[in-house]
Amino acid sequence: MSERDLDLSHHRSQGVNAELLREFDLVLVMEDSHLKSLQRNYPDEADKVYLLKAMVDQEGEVDDPVYGTKETYRATVKELEDLLVSGFDQIVSLTRGGSLDKER
Known about the structure:
- This protein is mainly alpha-helical.
- It has helices at about 20, 30-40, 70-85, 90-95; strands at about 25-30, 50.
- The model has no long low-confidence stretch (mean pLDDT about 90).
């Protein structure tokens, strides 16, 4: 991420739990398996979990680049950036209590 002037040296992944999910108004995931797992394991928080591609009215997943090449990572970063920029208004709306027009 240094190519994008982002310092992630202090970032550490962490496990998901109900307390963590309660802290957020919106949870965006890349893969359908993550969506279903969070909705199944945390039903009280399920209404705030969405696939990222739903923010731009697309179906499908963002492929996880783990174990990929640098080019795979770059392509994923570009895809994430495009989805976040294009879906920004929808993301903001959901954090303010709005809803998606279509099914997740």
